[in-house]
Amino acid sequence: MRGITKRFGDLVANDHIDITVEPGEVHALLGENGAGKSTLMNQLYGLLQPDEGEILVDGEKKVFRSPRDAIAAGIGMVHQHFMLVPVFTVAENIALGAEEVRGGPLGWLDRRRSRRDVLETSKRYGLPVDPDALVENLPVGAQQRVEIVKALTRDVDLLILDEPTAVLTPQETDELLAVMRSLAETGKSIVFITHKLREVKAIADRITVIRRGRTVGTTSPDTSTDELAALMVGRDVSLEVTKTPADPGREVLEVSGLIVEDDRGVRVVDGVDLAVRSGEVLGIAGVQGNGQTELVEAIMGLRESRAGSVVLEGQNLAGRTTKQVLRAGVGYVPEDRSLDGVVKDFTVAENLVLDLYDRAPFGNRFSLNPKAIDESARERVDQFDIRTSSPHSTVGTLSGGNQQKVVVAREMSRPLKLLIASQPTRGVDVGSIEFIHNQIIHERDVGTAVLVVSSELDEVVGLADRIAVMYRGRILAVVSPDMPREEIGLLMAGVVTQEAEDTE
Amino acid sequence: MSGVSTATAEELAEATAPDRFWNRQRRLGAALVIIGLIAAVIFGALAESATARFTISEDAEGAALSINGQLGAILFGVVTIAAGGALLAGVAKRWQTVLLSLGIVTFVFSFLCWQVAGKFLPLVDTASGSLELALPLILGALAGVLCERSGVVNVAIEGQFLMGAFGAALVGTLATSVWAGLISAVVGGVIIASLLAVLAIRFLVDQVVVGIVLNLLALGITGFLYERLMQPDALKYNSPPRLPEWRIPGLADIPVVGPVLFETNLLVWLALALVLVIHFGLTRTRWGLRTRAVGEHPTAADTVGIRVRGLRYTNVLLGGVVAGAGGAYFTLVSTGAFNKNMTAGAGFIALAALIFGRWTPFGALGAALFFGFAQKLANYLSAVGSPVPNQFLNMLPYLATIIAVAGLVGRVRAPAADGVPYVKS
Prior knowledge:
The complex is a heterodimer of chains A (504) and B (425).
Chain A: E1 2-8, E2 11-17, E3 26-30, H1 37-44, E4 52-57, E5 60-62, H2 67-72, E6 75-78, H3 90-95, E7 101-102, E8 108-109, H4 111-124, H5 140-152, E9 158-162, H6 170-185, E10 189-194, H7 197-203, E11 206-211, E12 214-219, H8 225-233, E13 251-261, E14 267-277, E15 281-285, H9 292-299, E16 305-312, E17 315-316, H10 322-327, E18 330-333, H11 337-341, H12 348-352, H13 370-383, H14 400-412, E19 418-422, H15 430-445, E20 449-453, H16 457-463, E21 466-471, E22 474-479, H17 485-492, E23 495-497, H18 498-503
Parallel strand pairs in A: 3-10, 3-11, 6-9, 9-10, 15-20, 15-21, 18-19, 19-20
Antiparallel strand pairs in A: 1-2, 1-4, 4-5, 7-8, 11-12, 13-14, 13-16, 16-17, 21-22
Chain B: E1 4-8, H1 24-46, E2 51-55, E3 63-68, H2 69-89, H3 93-116, E4 120-122, H4 123-149, H5 157-174, H6 178-202, H7 207-230, H8 234-237, E5 245-247, H9 257-261, E6 263-265, H10 266-284, H11 286-296, H12 298-303, H13 308-334, H14 346-356, H15 361-384, H16 390-394, H17 396-405
Parallel strand pairs in B: 2-4
Antiparallel strand pairs in B: 2-3, 5-6
């Protein structure tokens, strides 16, 4: 790919990017969230068309108008959000778009043959999949194997994997890396998009680092982790969180026997007991989709629980509305900022009082007090270092990190007993991550109980004073952040060690 | 990692939470017991103690079943209660549907015993009447299946019916050919469908709003032309030939089934054949697999090189063909002339049949037949001067749809991307 440029309005997502992938190599595309990695690869796969630049396959210039063209040129892609139809079987998903048919123009599906093709590919590359299972019933690791098999049955020469490890446990990640290695050995090229340095160093033959839409360098995996991190974020950063030892006080939140179902009626929180004390951070580690979301939603009154209790300082929160929970002194940073955190078309000032608009000094039952809202907004913008041209800009014009600061500022500007922060730094730039982490620790130090949920193990280990590992709706163990990462990783995969049981 | 035990979390003991007592089966059972009680007590009390006869032929003789009306109402009601009781007590899953159907059928018979006491109900006439009334509903619902399985909501079935009916009457009269009429009915349906397709797929207008607007458009155009053209000179513009009834020798001599299925018009056979064709098309062909993928997860379909919008256009237009043919029923089969707003909401009942039939061809067929039966029964009741206002039976399709959408009869799951326009990022 040569001189690829892609603009979305004023934003230049890719700015004259050059990248070459050799046959049989694993080429890592490293960069922060929002650096433009996925945008670049979506152009190679024909989902987006570049504004400038050209794509060459085997030295021949190609124009990809749609994924169909890219597939024909031998390019396959496993997307970050899986492109599988949930109500189809594995075989149907794999056949889709390249169906085996008989009966001429009728297009009668040859289901036996497509089933056999799946099994063959699955066996050849050592990727076990059940062709008759419904995709919606498969765990994410298996769905990812389906995606890879789907790409491989189309005879790809180049396979793009977009953040494939985001939803995997450390053990599943290792398996995936092994698969990638063996695919490369059969002569296939692999582009591996990620922001995780450890994985890059483990697998890549070459590394291209992208920052803010530009290539900042192509290096070998021998480069040190610190150097790669510096390339990626543009300055030396400490990913460690500096904090003093916790001084836990009384129990603030006590959850016992909590059972919650998801929208499909599947029990996703399966008898959770946990306690958070004032002045400590309890971190919940776990691969995404193991019930963390539903647990937090149940505490916040956003989702009905089937059984169990949630007690905040002797006050039962079960059955309360979200508003009542917030008023009881709970701060909540939701995991999906754009869905639950901010109203993008509202101004920064308005977003800062979303939970207080009907109370003095910001307003009452019937009207708002714009003056008080403005004054307070100016204060918060300074205090929380929100980079915006004015408190009256709409939140949608801010960067992800600054949007998140708006959420954090809102939640932390009232007296709290408990702060719940779900994925507090997802999609946030490194500078803002540091700031948000410090704010969370500051909240702990003034005596608030803090519950942090994150699928980034680094974040949980950095912030937490105690770590609860969640797997398939249960807390498998509560461990110290000093425990070796490999063992926490095993717990996240559902393997219970003797030691972990003892510390519980 | 020396201390790794072999226990994985799946093997740890299951946490206990009480299963909901009022599960679906018990709720259905309770509902059956209640309607059974209504049947046995109220229908039984109101029924005359006279013979109710269900006859094969058109006259009162030769009854296939004859029973004392009061006794029948009570007996059938008791069977309904028993079926509900069995569901309440808990039975194996495979018996659930059987018992539910038994309960509903016996409830209907209990009602019939009350109504028919002292009179007679011709079964063949009821069956063929139900099928005829269901005919546009089947075709309309199939049109809905075609559109909605590929992700385009079709509220414009009513408008397609009207245009089809109007086109059939006008062109059929002018060309004095019933086949020309049928073809222009299809064209009429396709005109509305193409407007729906362009507005919904190309211009991303809200599909429900577009559908309603198209219905009003069709009503306006056909109403205007009817008043200006057809009403002044009905002979020249509004007297199309009727579809001929064909009789298949041999098969038509089978009792009950024969006259209903094998002595009828082409449209009935077309509708029944389309149910099969669309069913197998959706489940067994490349077109069907792609259609379902586009309706469930268009982005996934796009990433494997399927033209999402193209396929949606195709299916919406095919839906227009089928619904237009359904419109022909009103002028070429039913009345033999066009009339202002003659479809009178049949398109919405077809939509109800689509939802009640869970977006499947056979489900749509079943629902359409059920609704057709309700309409036929309503006609019968008003003919015999029943005390039950026939409006109650005409409400049935809507009532059934509300019950279905509320999830009382199993979970209704629309295609995931139904009504969501596909926009490339």
